[in-house]
Amino acid sequence: MKNREKLRVITQTAMFTAVMAVLAQLALPMPSQVPLTLQTFGIALCARLGGRRLGLPALLIYLLAGASGMPVFSGFRGGFGILLGHTGGFLWGFIPLALCCTVQPRRKGMAVLMGGIGLCCCHAFGILQYCAVTDMDVLQAFFMMSAPYLAKDAISLYAAYPAAHAIHRAVQVAGIKL
Length: 178
Fold this sequence. Notes:
- This protein has 178 residues and is an all-alpha fold.
- The chain has six helices and two strands; from the N terminus they run H-E-E-H-H-H-H-H.
- It has a two-stranded antiparallel sheet.
- Helix 1 (3-25) packs across helix 2 (39-67).
């Protein structure tokens, strides 16, 4: 890989990481203490645009930055404790979500299905960690920590597909390689 190519990869990965961090800050507080954010949209968008080569590393950098204390998680929070806390399971769940969203099928329906599988994994991680941290049963945790967010997350996944497609086309027209 030539230096110019390395610089492009580093720059695009950093931009995807920044997009995730910014969208995490667009948050509405909720009674469950899990804010309503655009993180799901940001992760799906960056994973679809960058694929496994750029999108997935950007997510891992985002998680490492947050774990190291950088205020990239919602509410400008950071620290490893958040990954181990009551909302940390959703953050860990972003990994399978991103993996599923990096799949580049030819048909939109398959992309949405893969995103849905990733979203189910993300919510399962979130519910299970919440149960472990709070000693709440799975059904209660589902209705408190997952159900209120499912519609928003499903819409986010669905919206990320055409947004990524539009951005990809605009980038191609501009002569920029993704």
